[in-house]
Amino acid sequence: MSSKDVRGDKGASTGKRVGGNKKMSGAKLSTGSKGAGGGKKAAGRPHRGGKTKSQASSRQRTGRPSHRGASFDASALEGAEFIEVSNVALPLDAGLESPASEVNRPTPVPFSTETDRPTPAAPAASPAPAEGSHAESLSRAAIASALGVAPEDVASFSLVKRSVDARKKSNVHFNATYAVRLAQGVVYDTLSPARGVNVRAYDPPAPLAIPDLRSLATSSDERIVVAGTGPAGLFCALYLAEAGLRPLVVERGAAVDERTAAIESFNAGGPLDAAANVQFGEGGAGTFSDGKLTTGTKSPHIRHVLEAFVQAGAPDEILWQAKPHIGTDKLPAVVKSIRERIISAGGEVRFLTRLVDIELAGGAVRSVVLEDSRTGAREAVKASRVIVACGHSARDIFELARDRGFALERKPFSMGVRIEHPQTLINRAQYGAAAKHTALGAADYKMAVRVPARANGTRTDATSENATRGVYTFCMCPGGEVVAAASEEGGVVVNGMSRFARDGENSNSALLADVRPDDLPGNDVMEGVRLQRDVEHAAFELARRNGGVPYAAPAQTVGDFLAGATSSSGQAEGKQLGGTVAAASEARRRTVVPGSHRRVGASEPHSRLVVHPSYPRGVVWCDLRECLPEFICDALAQGLPLLDAKLHGFADPGAVLTGPETRSSSPIRMVRGENFQARLASDLPDSDEEPATRVYPCGEGAGYAGGIMSAAVDGLRVAEAIAAEFSSR
Fold it and tell me: Are 143 and 90 in contact (CB under 8 A)?
């Protein structure tokens, strides 16, 4: 089915009315007292004649400023009722009120066009700024200036996308994209867009169409089994359920409420629950993170995922934010709502249920064995297809896949620490004098550099293609906390999270270095997992040796870490070891006052930076080189000053490094064909035949995604492939 068929509009080019029947997806746009239908201008369809008296007078009022761009070709806008205006410079005060985002609200049924199924309630659209308010006037004036018209010539508008432009600290502002309807009589070919402003016909996003496959679903007791309720598993299962294919969803961890209680108990000093922790349970590892919904990939499914999250209760501003996030305080209710939707559409969800075996017959799946995570009781279930969406920490699944003859390969991953600063430092570095403006919120960052590579302590040949190693920040959590993310006994793992408001004292992000397959010894595909485990166990023991309680994390100031990187002994110089911070409240109160530090290549004054480590089980001051691989520490030490040159203060001697961060991505990929089905190790490497195992590796754990959004999109792609197989019967 084409997007034209799904939307029911008239296309996206010359002669059309974009959005269909003036409704703009059922939205009411922000209007002004002099816009269409009010004041001096009569309602009616715009842009049907030549230059009008109204437009001519508008030209006399606005003129053609010298900053206007090149000549504007309006032919592509012929007949369009709404236009998309991007790169609109918007003053910060325009962000002090809720923007007009109704044009962006999701359709009532984003996942299905069937009319005989229950319709989820549409979320309330964000209110437009009050007509005549300061924010509304600023937005209207910015749009008018961008188009070269008078403010009263802008009949209505709605926000499509907004980001912060802080490239010039003296002029921090919003960069916005709007859907705009001009007043009657204003003609497109007389617009004069400002330099850098882009104008095109507004094309509303098409909803995801799901075929009705209920009549094609197998009548036997075979099930489509989805293993994992992270983003990939949830969105794959949601699509399949709404297509009528009744998936069975199994999750080794607990439902989100029980999981939340287990995590809170662990953070307060209780024992680790191997079945309910930051890695395992409903929603996956992303449930206890910042809930970032950004991705470097391009796919129409990105919009579909955002709409589904809003349908499930996420704030509707994620539809227009350039860097949307949900926050760990809102994610539990959102993932629970998606689960309930799967069940209401005919799916089944079982928690505390592990996938422990996949049985093949003739190279294709025949059944799976499921195990109760608490009791160990096992059950064989006939399966027509299995989606392996278990996440990057389900290490037993990698072993199962290897033992059952599936093709696995090493893939690059990363390892490092969490770096923590006061959020005020990041705000000042990013926004300058505008840092305290309430419309901006907590600043973030994303940086990457390359440094000379060393493997096993030896510098790589400078002529080699692997002569450099990437060092970068990942999963930055503004106003957030460092998370205790262990999932196995005797290992320490850190991650980061933020609440929706991002109003915590500190910011943190992963500071990582690349781990390439050739950094690992031998040929065993599990060697990356082995390295992760070794580092996690070494960190656990390092903290204990230095007086820490179980699952306390080793930590070190940046100044001590860099001083150690330049000493002949490899130990930190001038290090002042602190005691264990055992309780969460004490960890947040403790002030880290660095001792005498020196940075690489220069002697600097003592740092005045004060950081209260937020890791909930407490930190122990240690030398991180005693638990992290030498080549990782070497890369981080080289990368920190380079990153500081991009973001002043990033490598301040008082910033705190807490480690280890080992679970940023999967070290293994389950090899799949173009049809998304897993290959067997026995397949000929040069075979052109697509695999027919009916096992579908999916998402981050299988090696095909790198975050919430990309994993959810991969889940939809796998579900579409399965639906296409049913449709072709």
Answer: no
- Give me the mean pLDDT over the 427-435 stretch: 97
| 9, 138, 149, 468, 470 from 453: Cα distances, Å | 54, 50, 55, 5, 9
Given its phi and psi angles, is residue 263 left (phi above 0), alpha (psi -120 to 50 degrees) or beta?
Answer: alpha
Dihedral through CA 167, CA 170, CA 172, CA 175, nearest 10? -60
- Rounded Cα distance between 596 and 604, Å, is 9
Pair of tokens at residue 145: 């200036």
Alpha carbon distances (Å) from 191 to 40, 69, 155, 455: 21, 11, 15, 59
Question: Do 92 and 437 contact (CB within 8 A), yes or no?
Answer: yes
3-state class percentages of the chain: helix first, strand second, coil last, to nearest 5: 30, 20, 50
Q: How far is CA 329 from CA 325, 335, 501, in A?
A: 11, 12, 9
Contact (CB, 8 A) for 39 and 119: no
Q: How many CB atoms lie within 10 A of CB 111?
A: 26
pTM of the model: 0.84
- In angstroms, the CA 674 to CA 729 distance is 19
* 255 vs 496: CA distance, rounded Å: 21
Report whether the peptide linkage leading into residue 660 is cis, meaning its omega lies within 30 degrees of zero.
yes
Average pLDDT, the chain: 82
In contact, 312 and 234? CB cutoff 8 Å: no
Q: Is the pLDDT of residue 459 over 80?
A: no
CA atoms of 370 and 373, how far apart (whole Å) = 9
User: Two tokens at 727?
Assistant: 């449709």
**Rounded Cα gap, residues 447 and 123, in angstroms:** 35
Q: Which two tokens stand for residue 121?
A: 């309630």
Of residues 199 and 579, which shows the higher confidence score? 199
Task: Please calculate the CA angle 483-489-495 and round it to the nearest 5 degrees.
Answer: 15
* Strand (E) or helix (H) holding 85: strand 83-90
Distance CA 658, CA 553 (A): 7
Beta-carbon count within 10 A of 215 CB: 7
- Residue whose structure tokens are 């009569």: 42
Of residues 580 and 462, more confidently modeled: 462
Q: Which residue has the higher pLDDT, 686 or 291?
A: 291
CA distance 307 to 315: 10
**How far is it, in rounded angstroms, from Cα 674 to Cα 691?**
9
> What's the rounded Cα separation, in Å, for the pair 137 and 117?
43
- Cα–Cα dist 133/151, whole Å: 14
Q: How many CB atoms lie within 10 A of CB 195?
A: 11
**Which is higher by pLDDT, 108 or 160?**
160
Q: What pLDDT score was predicted for residue 136?
A: 87
Determine the Cα–Cα distance for residues 301 and 307; give it in Å rounded to an integer. Answer: 10
Cβ–Cβ < 8 Å for 25, 103: yes
- Look up residue 362 and give its amino acid: G
pLDDT level of residue 580 (50, 70, 90 thresholds) = very low
Burial of 575 (0-12, 13-18, 19+ CB in 10 A): buried
- Tokens standing for 313? 């209760």
- Phi first, then psi, for residue 435 (nearest 5°) are -60, -30
Q: Rounded distance, CA 153 to CA 186, Å?
A: 7
Q: What H or E segment, with its residue span, contains residue 385?
A: strand 378-388
- Annotate 240-269 with b (16+ C-beta within 10 A) or e (fewer): bbbbbbbbbbbbbbbbbebbbebbeebbee
**Amino acid occupying residue 521:** P
